[in-house]
What does this fold into?
Amino acid sequence: MNARERGPEGIGGWLALFLLFLAIVALPAAVDLVRYLVSLRSPVFVTINGYDLRLLAAGGAALDVLELLLFAFMARRLVAIRNRRTIEIVIAGLWLLAFADPLVEFALNPLAWGRGHLLHDLVRHVPINVAILIPWTVYFLRSRRVANTYRRAGDAEAICRIFG
It folds into this structure.
């Protein structure tokens, strides 16, 4: 079976678009990180209801660093490690971010506790995240390009045994 019969392979098409999607989705976290770091350098800080806003800024900065590291890890893994485990890790990472991000943001912000902000964030963010991630998940699980680029361990050996 030659490459043409097997179908597309490598980083291209929708797979390249997904890498661009990862970069675009990471932009708000990068902007927020800069905003938090600038605010942490400010000599004037406000305390609201007994909560020092420096702690909120530091927590937000830490969360943004973790998000950016996860996005970078997923992108690097997609480009550098071409096995089926990569696809499993990317899908799990995306779904983790979709649900964990609003929950962790709420946990880091004591000003939002008891005010219904969690429900508001979940209702606002999670359905949008799910609507975006379902097509990407289906793509990763069903795409011929993804299957050809990220093969299961042993696929190459099986092909060699069958086709010599």
